[in-house]
Specification:
By secondary structure, the chain is an alpha/beta fold. The chain is 36% helix and 22% strand. The strands form six sheets. Strands 3, 6, 7, 8, 9, 10, 11, 12, 13 and 16 form a ten-stranded mixed β-sheet that branches. A three-stranded antiparallel β-sheet has the order 17-18-19.
Length: 482
Protein backbone atom coordinates (compact mmCIF):
# COMPACT_ATOMS: atom_id res chain seq x y z
CA UNK A 1 0.00 0.00 0.00
CA UNK A 2 1.26 3.46 -0.95
CA UNK A 3 -0.34 6.31 0.91
CA UNK A 4 -1.22 9.50 -0.95
CA UNK A 5 -3.80 12.22 -0.62
CA UNK A 6 -6.75 12.14 -2.97
CA UNK A 7 -9.90 14.22 -3.29
CA UNK A 8 -13.18 13.24 -1.74
CA UNK A 9 -16.27 14.99 -3.08
CA UNK A 10 -19.99 15.04 -2.53
CA UNK A 11 -22.45 16.71 -4.88
CA UNK A 12 -21.09 19.53 -7.01
CA UNK A 13 -18.25 20.68 -4.79
CA UNK A 14 -15.01 19.08 -3.73
CA UNK A 15 -14.66 19.96 -0.08
CA UNK A 16 -11.81 18.07 1.54
CA UNK A 17 -8.75 15.91 1.12
CA UNK A 18 -9.03 12.35 2.44
CA UNK A 19 -6.27 9.84 2.96
CA UNK A 20 -6.24 7.24 0.22
CA UNK A 21 -3.93 4.39 -0.66
CA UNK A 22 -2.72 3.30 -4.07
CA UNK A 23 -3.00 -0.46 -4.05
CA UNK A 24 -0.27 -1.45 -6.52
CA UNK A 25 -1.34 -4.81 -7.93
CA UNK A 26 1.03 -5.73 -10.75
CA UNK A 27 -1.15 -8.59 -11.95
CA UNK A 28 -4.21 -6.36 -12.10
CA UNK A 29 -2.36 -3.61 -13.96
CA UNK A 30 -1.02 -6.10 -16.46
CA UNK A 31 -4.46 -7.59 -17.10
CA UNK A 32 -5.95 -4.17 -17.74
CA UNK A 33 -3.14 -3.03 -20.00
CA UNK A 34 -4.45 -1.97 -23.40
CA UNK A 35 -3.94 1.05 -25.64
CA UNK A 36 -6.26 3.92 -24.80
CA UNK A 37 -6.60 7.70 -24.92
CA UNK A 38 -4.93 9.90 -22.32
CA UNK A 39 -8.09 12.06 -22.34
CA UNK A 40 -6.44 15.44 -22.64
CA UNK A 41 -9.69 16.09 -24.51
CA UNK A 42 -13.03 14.46 -25.10
CA UNK A 43 -13.77 13.71 -27.85
CA UNK A 44 -10.17 12.84 -28.59
CA UNK A 45 -8.21 14.14 -31.59
CA UNK A 46 -8.87 11.13 -33.86
CA UNK A 47 -12.52 12.23 -33.95
CA UNK A 48 -11.64 15.60 -35.47
CA UNK A 49 -12.56 15.90 -39.17
CA UNK A 50 -11.87 18.12 -42.18
CA UNK A 51 -15.47 19.40 -42.28
CA UNK A 52 -14.53 21.82 -39.50
CA UNK A 53 -12.46 24.59 -41.09
CA UNK A 54 -11.67 28.26 -40.86
CA UNK A 55 -15.26 29.48 -41.20
CA UNK A 56 -16.40 27.15 -38.41
CA UNK A 57 -13.62 28.38 -36.13
CA UNK A 58 -14.55 32.02 -36.77
CA UNK A 59 -18.20 31.24 -35.98
CA UNK A 60 -17.23 29.43 -32.80
CA UNK A 61 -15.07 32.31 -31.56
CA UNK A 62 -17.83 34.79 -32.37
CA UNK A 63 -20.31 32.76 -30.35
CA UNK A 64 -17.88 32.53 -27.43
CA UNK A 65 -17.47 36.31 -27.47
CA UNK A 66 -21.25 36.64 -27.09
CA UNK A 67 -21.45 34.54 -23.93
CA UNK A 68 -22.98 36.58 -21.06
CA UNK A 69 -19.67 36.23 -19.22
CA UNK A 70 -16.99 35.42 -21.84
CA UNK A 71 -14.36 32.99 -20.68
CA UNK A 72 -10.79 34.03 -20.15
CA UNK A 73 -8.15 32.82 -22.61
CA UNK A 74 -5.27 30.38 -22.38
CA UNK A 75 -2.73 30.63 -25.20
CA UNK A 76 -0.48 27.81 -26.37
CA UNK A 77 2.46 28.44 -28.72
CA UNK A 78 4.10 25.48 -30.44
CA UNK A 79 7.80 25.77 -31.34
CA UNK A 80 8.60 22.64 -33.38
CA UNK A 81 12.40 22.80 -33.61
CA UNK A 82 14.96 20.66 -31.77
CA UNK A 83 18.73 20.75 -32.19
CA UNK A 84 19.16 16.99 -31.74
CA UNK A 85 16.80 13.99 -31.89
CA UNK A 86 15.75 12.06 -28.80
CA UNK A 87 14.99 8.56 -30.05
CA UNK A 88 12.02 7.98 -27.71
CA UNK A 89 10.20 11.10 -28.93
CA UNK A 90 6.66 11.05 -30.30
CA UNK A 91 6.20 14.83 -30.47
CA UNK A 92 5.69 16.98 -33.54
CA UNK A 93 9.20 18.36 -34.05
CA UNK A 94 11.76 19.28 -36.69
CA UNK A 95 15.45 18.52 -36.16
CA UNK A 96 17.71 21.38 -37.23
CA UNK A 97 20.58 23.54 -36.00
CA UNK A 98 19.78 26.26 -38.52
CA UNK A 99 18.65 29.14 -36.32
CA UNK A 100 17.42 31.03 -39.37
CA UNK A 101 14.51 28.60 -39.50
CA UNK A 102 13.34 30.04 -36.20
CA UNK A 103 13.16 33.54 -37.70
CA UNK A 104 11.17 32.29 -40.69
CA UNK A 105 8.81 30.44 -38.38
CA UNK A 106 8.23 33.52 -36.24
CA UNK A 107 7.33 35.61 -39.30
CA UNK A 108 4.40 33.23 -40.00
CA UNK A 109 3.55 32.91 -36.31
CA UNK A 110 3.05 36.68 -36.07
CA UNK A 111 0.63 36.51 -39.00
CA UNK A 112 -1.34 33.83 -37.21
CA UNK A 113 -1.38 35.83 -33.97
CA UNK A 114 -2.72 38.88 -35.82
CA UNK A 115 -5.40 36.88 -37.64
CA UNK A 116 -6.53 35.07 -34.50
CA UNK A 117 -6.49 38.10 -32.21
CA UNK A 118 -8.91 39.94 -34.49
CA UNK A 119 -11.52 37.30 -33.79
CA UNK A 120 -11.58 37.81 -30.02
CA UNK A 121 -13.10 40.71 -28.11
CA UNK A 122 -10.39 42.76 -26.42
CA UNK A 123 -12.09 42.48 -23.03
CA UNK A 124 -11.23 38.77 -22.88
CA UNK A 125 -8.10 38.61 -20.79
CA UNK A 126 -5.32 36.06 -21.07
CA UNK A 127 -4.76 34.12 -17.84
CA UNK A 128 -2.29 31.56 -19.18
CA UNK A 129 0.43 31.38 -21.84
CA UNK A 130 2.44 28.22 -22.48
CA UNK A 131 5.29 27.51 -24.91
CA UNK A 132 5.67 23.86 -25.91
CA UNK A 133 7.42 21.86 -28.58
CA UNK A 134 9.82 20.66 -29.82
CA UNK A 135 12.23 22.77 -27.85
CA UNK A 136 10.92 26.30 -27.21
CA UNK A 137 14.39 27.44 -26.12
CA UNK A 138 15.53 26.74 -29.67
CA UNK A 139 14.48 30.41 -29.82
CA UNK A 140 16.73 32.89 -28.06
CA UNK A 141 15.47 34.84 -25.04
CA UNK A 142 15.31 37.89 -27.31
CA UNK A 143 13.07 36.04 -29.77
CA UNK A 144 10.87 34.73 -26.97
CA UNK A 145 10.55 38.28 -25.64
CA UNK A 146 9.45 39.38 -29.10
CA UNK A 147 6.78 36.66 -29.22
CA UNK A 148 5.45 37.57 -25.76
CA UNK A 149 5.49 41.27 -26.59
CA UNK A 150 3.60 40.57 -29.83
CA UNK A 151 0.97 38.61 -27.93
CA UNK A 152 0.69 41.35 -25.33
CA UNK A 153 0.12 43.86 -28.12
CA UNK A 154 -2.72 41.78 -29.59
CA UNK A 155 -4.36 40.39 -26.45
CA UNK A 156 -5.13 41.81 -23.01
CA UNK A 157 -3.07 39.95 -20.43
CA UNK A 158 -4.39 39.54 -16.90
CA UNK A 159 -2.52 41.03 -13.95
CA UNK A 160 -3.99 38.42 -11.59
CA UNK A 161 -1.54 36.74 -9.19
CA UNK A 162 -2.43 33.31 -10.60
CA UNK A 163 -1.52 34.24 -14.18
CA UNK A 164 0.83 31.65 -15.68
CA UNK A 165 3.48 32.21 -18.33
CA UNK A 166 5.23 28.87 -18.71
CA UNK A 167 7.75 27.20 -20.98
CA UNK A 168 9.21 23.77 -21.67
CA UNK A 169 13.02 23.89 -21.63
CA UNK A 170 15.87 21.57 -22.58
CA UNK A 171 18.52 21.98 -19.85
CA UNK A 172 21.26 21.06 -22.32
CA UNK A 173 20.68 24.23 -24.30
CA UNK A 174 19.83 26.86 -21.69
CA UNK A 175 22.00 28.81 -19.24
CA UNK A 176 21.37 30.49 -15.93
CA UNK A 177 21.59 33.83 -17.74
CA UNK A 178 18.86 32.66 -20.14
CA UNK A 179 16.64 31.77 -17.18
CA UNK A 180 17.13 35.21 -15.65
CA UNK A 181 16.21 36.76 -19.01
CA UNK A 182 13.06 34.63 -19.24
CA UNK A 183 12.02 35.72 -15.76
CA UNK A 184 12.43 39.35 -16.81
CA UNK A 185 10.09 38.68 -19.75
CA UNK A 186 7.46 37.37 -17.33
CA UNK A 187 7.89 33.60 -17.38
CA UNK A 188 7.06 32.15 -13.98
CA UNK A 189 6.79 28.40 -14.59
CA UNK A 190 9.18 26.00 -16.32
CA UNK A 191 9.22 22.32 -17.24
CA UNK A 192 12.38 20.32 -17.89
CA UNK A 193 12.84 16.97 -19.55
CA UNK A 194 15.15 14.59 -17.70
CA UNK A 195 13.79 11.10 -18.51
CA UNK A 196 16.64 9.29 -16.71
CA UNK A 197 20.09 10.28 -15.45
CA UNK A 198 21.55 6.79 -15.96
CA UNK A 199 24.37 7.07 -18.57
CA UNK A 200 23.47 3.78 -20.26
CA UNK A 201 19.86 4.90 -20.73
CA UNK A 202 20.90 8.33 -21.98
CA UNK A 203 23.24 6.80 -24.55
CA UNK A 204 20.53 4.42 -25.77
CA UNK A 205 18.01 7.25 -26.31
CA UNK A 206 20.54 9.80 -27.64
CA UNK A 207 20.05 12.32 -24.86
CA UNK A 208 23.19 12.95 -22.82
CA UNK A 209 22.27 15.27 -19.96
CA UNK A 210 24.19 15.64 -16.71
CA UNK A 211 22.80 16.04 -13.23
CA UNK A 212 24.88 19.23 -12.89
CA UNK A 213 23.32 20.79 -16.00
CA UNK A 214 19.83 20.07 -14.77
CA UNK A 215 20.43 21.18 -11.18
CA UNK A 216 21.96 24.46 -12.37
CA UNK A 217 18.87 25.30 -14.40
CA UNK A 218 16.46 24.32 -11.61
CA UNK A 219 18.46 26.46 -9.17
CA UNK A 220 18.42 29.36 -11.64
CA UNK A 221 14.63 29.16 -11.81
CA UNK A 222 14.44 29.32 -8.03
CA UNK A 223 16.84 32.28 -7.90
CA UNK A 224 14.85 34.08 -10.61
CA UNK A 225 11.57 33.78 -8.73
CA UNK A 226 9.77 31.16 -10.82
CA UNK A 227 6.61 30.02 -9.05
CA UNK A 228 6.88 26.40 -10.12
CA UNK A 229 9.33 23.95 -11.68
CA UNK A 230 8.31 20.65 -13.26
CA UNK A 231 10.57 17.70 -14.13
CA UNK A 232 9.58 14.98 -16.61
CA UNK A 233 10.74 11.39 -16.24
CA UNK A 234 10.07 8.33 -18.41
CA UNK A 235 9.99 4.69 -17.37
CA UNK A 236 10.26 1.79 -19.80
CA UNK A 237 13.27 3.09 -21.77
CA UNK A 238 16.08 0.89 -23.14
CA UNK A 239 18.70 -0.17 -20.59
CA UNK A 240 16.53 1.05 -17.72
CA UNK A 241 16.71 -0.92 -14.50
CA UNK A 242 15.56 -0.50 -10.92
CA UNK A 243 18.94 0.45 -9.50
CA UNK A 244 19.62 3.21 -12.02
CA UNK A 245 16.07 4.58 -11.95
CA UNK A 246 16.17 4.65 -8.14
CA UNK A 247 19.23 6.90 -8.33
CA UNK A 248 17.43 9.17 -10.78
CA UNK A 249 14.36 9.41 -8.56
CA UNK A 250 16.48 10.17 -5.49
CA UNK A 251 18.38 12.87 -7.38
CA UNK A 252 15.18 14.48 -8.67
CA UNK A 253 13.57 14.37 -5.22
CA UNK A 254 16.66 16.07 -3.80
CA UNK A 255 16.31 18.87 -6.39
CA UNK A 256 12.77 19.30 -5.04
CA UNK A 257 10.84 20.40 -8.14
CA UNK A 258 7.27 21.45 -7.39
CA UNK A 259 5.88 18.91 -9.85
CA UNK A 260 7.10 15.64 -11.32
CA UNK A 261 5.59 13.80 -14.27
CA UNK A 262 6.47 10.13 -14.77
CA UNK A 263 5.37 8.91 -18.21
CA UNK A 264 5.36 5.37 -19.50
CA UNK A 265 7.32 5.01 -22.73
CA UNK A 266 5.17 3.82 -25.65
CA UNK A 267 7.27 2.00 -28.25
CA UNK A 268 5.47 2.62 -31.55
CA UNK A 269 8.14 2.88 -34.26
CA UNK A 270 5.49 2.41 -36.94
CA UNK A 271 4.08 5.80 -35.92
CA UNK A 272 7.19 7.64 -34.70
CA UNK A 273 10.23 7.26 -36.94
CA UNK A 274 12.82 8.32 -34.32
CA UNK A 275 11.94 5.23 -32.29
CA UNK A 276 13.31 3.04 -35.09
CA UNK A 277 16.75 4.12 -33.86
CA UNK A 278 16.16 2.35 -30.54
CA UNK A 279 17.28 -1.20 -29.91
CA UNK A 280 14.01 -2.84 -28.92
CA UNK A 281 15.85 -5.80 -27.37
CA UNK A 282 17.08 -3.42 -24.63
CA UNK A 283 13.57 -2.43 -23.52
CA UNK A 284 12.64 -3.57 -19.99
CA UNK A 285 10.51 -6.67 -19.62
CA UNK A 286 6.85 -6.13 -18.72
CA UNK A 287 7.57 -7.13 -15.11
CA UNK A 288 10.51 -4.73 -14.84
CA UNK A 289 8.48 -1.95 -16.40
CA UNK A 290 5.78 -2.38 -13.77
CA UNK A 291 8.40 -2.45 -11.04
CA UNK A 292 9.83 0.84 -12.37
CA UNK A 293 6.40 2.43 -12.06
CA UNK A 294 5.93 1.10 -8.55
CA UNK A 295 9.37 2.38 -7.58
CA UNK A 296 8.53 5.86 -8.88
CA UNK A 297 5.30 5.99 -6.89
CA UNK A 298 6.98 4.76 -3.71
CA UNK A 299 9.96 7.09 -3.98
CA UNK A 300 7.99 10.22 -4.83
CA UNK A 301 5.23 9.76 -2.28
CA UNK A 302 7.85 8.97 0.39
CA UNK A 303 9.50 12.27 -0.56
CA UNK A 304 6.25 14.11 0.16
CA UNK A 305 4.70 14.35 -3.32
CA UNK A 306 0.97 13.82 -3.81
CA UNK A 307 -0.30 11.68 -6.67
CA UNK A 308 -2.52 13.99 -8.73
CA UNK A 309 -3.42 11.42 -11.36
CA UNK A 310 -2.37 10.29 -14.85
CA UNK A 311 1.41 10.29 -14.26
CA UNK A 312 1.52 13.58 -12.32
CA UNK A 313 2.81 14.29 -8.82
CA UNK A 314 2.96 17.60 -6.97
CA UNK A 315 4.07 18.95 -3.62
CA UNK A 316 1.16 19.69 -1.24
CA UNK A 317 1.58 23.47 -1.56
CA UNK A 318 1.79 23.46 -5.36
CA UNK A 319 -1.13 24.96 -7.27
CA UNK A 320 -2.03 21.61 -8.86
CA UNK A 321 -2.52 19.99 -5.46
CA UNK A 322 -4.38 23.03 -4.13
CA UNK A 323 -6.61 23.16 -7.21
CA UNK A 324 -7.45 19.49 -6.82
CA UNK A 325 -8.41 20.12 -3.20
CA UNK A 326 -10.62 23.03 -4.27
CA UNK A 327 -12.23 21.08 -7.10
CA UNK A 328 -10.89 23.46 -9.76
CA UNK A 329 -8.29 21.18 -11.35
CA UNK A 330 -8.60 20.91 -15.13
CA UNK A 331 -7.11 18.68 -17.82
CA UNK A 332 -6.45 19.73 -21.41
CA UNK A 333 -3.84 19.38 -24.16
CA UNK A 334 -1.24 20.95 -21.89
CA UNK A 335 -1.90 18.29 -19.23
CA UNK A 336 -3.22 19.21 -15.78
CA UNK A 337 -3.82 22.91 -15.28
CA UNK A 338 -5.42 25.20 -12.73
CA UNK A 339 -7.34 27.32 -15.26
CA UNK A 340 -10.57 25.48 -15.92
CA UNK A 341 -12.55 28.60 -16.79
CA UNK A 342 -10.76 29.49 -20.02
CA UNK A 343 -10.89 28.90 -23.75
CA UNK A 344 -7.68 27.50 -25.24
CA UNK A 345 -6.20 29.05 -28.39
CA UNK A 346 -3.38 27.07 -29.99
CA UNK A 347 -0.87 28.89 -32.20
CA UNK A 348 1.78 27.37 -34.43
CA UNK A 349 2.10 24.19 -36.46
CA UNK A 350 -0.01 21.26 -35.09
CA UNK A 351 -1.44 23.35 -32.21
CA UNK A 352 -4.93 22.48 -30.95
CA UNK A 353 -7.59 24.94 -29.79
CA UNK A 354 -10.63 24.35 -27.61
CA UNK A 355 -12.98 27.30 -28.04
CA UNK A 356 -16.46 27.02 -26.59
CA UNK A 357 -17.90 23.66 -27.60
CA UNK A 358 -15.44 23.08 -30.42
CA UNK A 359 -11.98 21.68 -31.08
CA UNK A 360 -9.74 22.67 -33.97
CA UNK A 361 -6.22 21.81 -35.00
CA UNK A 362 -3.61 23.49 -37.18
CA UNK A 363 -1.84 21.49 -39.92
CA UNK A 364 0.70 19.06 -38.51
CA UNK A 365 3.22 19.64 -41.29
CA UNK A 366 5.10 22.93 -41.61
CA UNK A 367 4.51 23.57 -45.37
CA UNK A 368 0.70 23.33 -45.04
CA UNK A 369 0.68 25.63 -42.01
CA UNK A 370 2.88 28.15 -43.83
CA UNK A 371 0.79 28.01 -47.01
CA UNK A 372 -2.46 28.75 -45.18
CA UNK A 373 -0.96 31.81 -43.50
CA UNK A 374 0.68 33.01 -46.71
CA UNK A 375 -2.82 33.00 -48.24
CA UNK A 376 -4.20 35.00 -45.32
CA UNK A 377 -6.19 32.16 -43.73
CA UNK A 378 -6.47 30.94 -40.18
CA UNK A 379 -4.59 27.62 -40.50
CA UNK A 380 -7.26 25.08 -39.58
CA UNK A 381 -7.15 21.63 -41.14
CA UNK A 382 -9.56 19.71 -38.93
CA UNK A 383 -11.77 19.98 -35.87
CA UNK A 384 -15.28 19.30 -34.60
CA UNK A 385 -18.29 20.80 -32.90
CA UNK A 386 -19.33 18.95 -29.77
CA UNK A 387 -22.94 17.83 -29.56
CA UNK A 388 -24.93 17.66 -26.32
CA UNK A 389 -23.79 14.10 -25.64
CA UNK A 390 -20.13 15.04 -26.18
CA UNK A 391 -20.46 17.91 -23.71
CA UNK A 392 -21.99 15.66 -21.05
CA UNK A 393 -19.38 12.93 -21.47
CA UNK A 394 -16.56 15.48 -21.53
CA UNK A 395 -17.80 16.85 -18.20
CA UNK A 396 -17.95 13.34 -16.76
CA UNK A 397 -14.47 12.35 -17.95
CA UNK A 398 -13.01 15.67 -16.79
CA UNK A 399 -14.34 15.00 -13.27
CA UNK A 400 -12.98 11.47 -13.34
CA UNK A 401 -9.50 12.53 -14.48
CA UNK A 402 -9.22 15.43 -12.05
CA UNK A 403 -11.02 14.25 -8.91
CA UNK A 404 -11.11 10.44 -9.34
CA UNK A 405 -14.88 10.29 -9.20
CA UNK A 406 -18.04 10.76 -11.24
CA UNK A 407 -20.61 12.99 -9.51
CA UNK A 408 -23.75 11.12 -10.60
CA UNK A 409 -26.39 13.32 -8.96
CA UNK A 410 -24.67 16.53 -10.01
CA UNK A 411 -24.58 15.39 -13.65
CA UNK A 412 -28.24 14.39 -13.48
CA UNK A 413 -29.18 17.87 -12.26
CA UNK A 414 -26.88 19.67 -14.67
CA UNK A 415 -28.02 17.81 -17.79
CA UNK A 416 -31.55 16.71 -16.82
CA UNK A 417 -30.82 13.01 -17.32
CA UNK A 418 -31.47 9.75 -15.53
CA UNK A 419 -27.87 8.59 -15.15
CA UNK A 420 -28.40 4.78 -15.01
CA UNK A 421 -30.71 4.89 -18.04
CA UNK A 422 -28.63 7.32 -20.09
CA UNK A 423 -25.39 5.46 -19.44
CA UNK A 424 -26.80 1.93 -19.46
CA UNK A 425 -24.18 0.70 -21.96
CA UNK A 426 -21.34 2.39 -20.07
CA UNK A 427 -22.49 0.94 -16.76
CA UNK A 428 -22.50 -2.53 -18.30
CA UNK A 429 -18.90 -1.98 -19.41
CA UNK A 430 -18.05 -0.69 -15.96
CA UNK A 431 -19.39 -3.77 -14.19
CA UNK A 432 -16.24 -5.94 -14.58
CA UNK A 433 -14.17 -3.03 -13.28
CA UNK A 434 -16.46 -2.76 -10.27
CA UNK A 435 -16.15 -6.48 -9.66
CA UNK A 436 -12.36 -6.12 -9.73
CA UNK A 437 -12.60 -3.37 -7.13
CA UNK A 438 -11.50 -0.46 -9.35
CA UNK A 439 -14.60 1.65 -8.68
CA UNK A 440 -17.29 1.90 -6.06
CA UNK A 441 -20.73 2.50 -7.59
CA UNK A 442 -23.25 4.30 -5.38
CA UNK A 443 -26.44 6.19 -6.28
CA UNK A 444 -24.87 9.62 -5.76
CA UNK A 445 -21.34 9.02 -6.93
CA UNK A 446 -19.01 6.60 -8.71
CA UNK A 447 -15.67 6.81 -6.93
CA UNK A 448 -12.30 5.38 -7.89
CA UNK A 449 -10.80 3.06 -5.28
CA UNK A 450 -7.19 2.58 -4.28
CA UNK A 451 -6.99 -0.27 -6.81
CA UNK A 452 -8.27 1.94 -9.61
CA UNK A 453 -6.17 5.09 -9.19
CA UNK A 454 -3.62 3.94 -11.78
CA UNK A 455 -6.32 2.86 -14.23
CA UNK A 456 -8.25 6.09 -14.71
CA UNK A 457 -8.13 5.85 -18.48
CA UNK A 458 -9.63 2.35 -18.43
CA UNK A 459 -12.51 3.67 -16.36
CA UNK A 460 -12.98 6.65 -18.68
CA UNK A 461 -12.99 4.35 -21.72
CA UNK A 462 -16.24 2.83 -20.48
CA UNK A 463 -17.95 6.20 -21.08
CA UNK A 464 -16.31 6.96 -24.45
CA UNK A 465 -18.97 6.42 -27.09
CA UNK A 466 -16.39 6.54 -29.91
CA UNK A 467 -14.43 3.52 -28.70
CA UNK A 468 -15.07 -0.01 -29.81
CA UNK A 469 -12.24 -1.45 -27.71
CA UNK A 470 -13.50 -2.76 -24.36
CA UNK A 471 -11.95 -1.44 -21.16
CA UNK A 472 -12.25 -4.68 -19.17
CA UNK A 473 -9.28 -6.96 -18.47
CA UNK A 474 -7.66 -9.12 -21.13
CA UNK A 475 -5.00 -11.78 -21.22
CA UNK A 476 -1.81 -10.50 -19.63
CA UNK A 477 0.09 -8.01 -21.79
CA UNK A 478 1.82 -4.73 -21.08
CA UNK A 479 2.60 -1.75 -23.27
CA UNK A 480 1.33 1.75 -22.83
CA UNK A 481 -1.99 1.82 -20.99
CA UNK A 482 -0.35 2.84 -17.71
Amino acid sequence: MIEVKAPCATGDKLHSMATQHIDFDAGLLSRYDRPGPRYTSYPTAPQFNADFGEAALRDTIRASNEDPIPRRLSLYVHVPFCESPCFYCGCNRIITRDKARGEAYLARLYREIALAAKQFDRDREVIQLHFGGGTPNFLTPEQLREVVDTLRGQFRFSDAPDRDISIELDPRFVSAEDIHALAAIGFNRASFGVQDFDPAVQEAVNRIQSVEQTRAVVDACRASGFHSVNVDLIYGLPNQNLEGFARTLDTVAEMRPDRVAVYGYAHMPHLFKPQKQLNATLLPTPDTRLALLQLAIEKLTAAGYLYIGMDHFALPDDELALAQARGSLHRNFMGYTTHADSDLLGLGVSAISHIGDSFSQNPRDLPSWQAALDEGHLPVFRGMRMDADDILRADLIQALMCSAEIPVRALERRYAIDFPAYFADAMAKLQPLEQDGLVRVEPDCISVTSRGRLLLRNIAMCFDRYLTTPAEPSTPRFSRAI
